[in-house]
Amino acid sequence: MRKTLVGLFEQAPRKQSIHFFDLDETLFHHPTDEKGVRIHVAHPSGHRVASLTNTQFNNYKLPPGHKFDFSEFRSSHKFSQTAKPIRKTIAKLKALNSTGKKAEILTARADMDDKEDFGKHLNKYGIDIDKVHVRRAGNLPGSAAQNKKTIVSGLINKHGYNDVHLYDDNHENLNTFLGLKKDHPNVTFTAHHVEHDPVSGRVKITTTKV
Fold it and tell me: Cβ(151)–Cβ(174) under 8 Å?
């Protein structure tokens, strides 16, 4: 009987976890007034027809022929000017790293124009990008939700993670992430919806696991 129990324990898969944190409105908040960072919308003729906050961009449907201008989102200087820390989620990321657990940043942004300046701003709040990998979904073609899904799926296949978490303020990103269960039925996926109130500073995190 004892040998049988030992055999069962030896066959149990070892938990290999990774935690992904969105950047904007999850780790850092941006003002919604004219001082905040914006994604601009350009008409086919070239003139600007709209300027969107990160939250507005998540639900914006681009008209045919129009293009997004992400120049402000690629500006490390603009990020340093506008990004204010959401301390609860930053503390969570740092706590995971301090206990030896794997935690990374998974952002919808593409490459920043000055990695050193970007890293300095994060380092002010204890996030060392030499130790915390910043994965940039904006470097891939397609929507932020689908690109994040592609990145996470690739890392599961490469490293064998079987316990995967995503902290994000956007429901579409989280729902698409949970949809990975169909491709990876033996992996546990946990979505953490982050809702930050910039006035009070309060953060509410709602968790869904599949």
Answer: no
Residue type (1 letter), 183: D
pLDDT in tens, 150-209: 999 999 999 999 999 999 999 999 999 999 999 999 999 999 999 999 889 899 999 999
Query: What is the CB neighbour count within 10 angstroms for residue 122?
Result: 22
| CA–CA dist 129, 123 (Å, integer) | 8
Q: pTM, whole model, 2 decimals?
A: 0.83
Return the closest-CA partner of residue 167 out of 21, 28, 17: 21
CB-count burial class (<10 Å; 0-12, 13-18, 19+) for 206? exposed
In angstroms, rounded to a whole number, what is the distance separating the alpha carbons of residues 192 and 204?
10
Answer whether 127's CB lies under 8 Å from 98's CB. Answer: no
Q: What are phi and psi of 55, to 5 degrees?
A: -65, -45
Number of Cβ atoms within 10 Å of the Cβ of 24:
25
pLDDT digits (tens, 9 = 90+) for 1-19: 455 555 555 565 688 999 9
CB of 30 closer than 8 Å to CB of 197: no
Pair of tokens at residue 27: 């780790």
Which phi and psi angles does 46 have, rounded to 5°?
110, -20
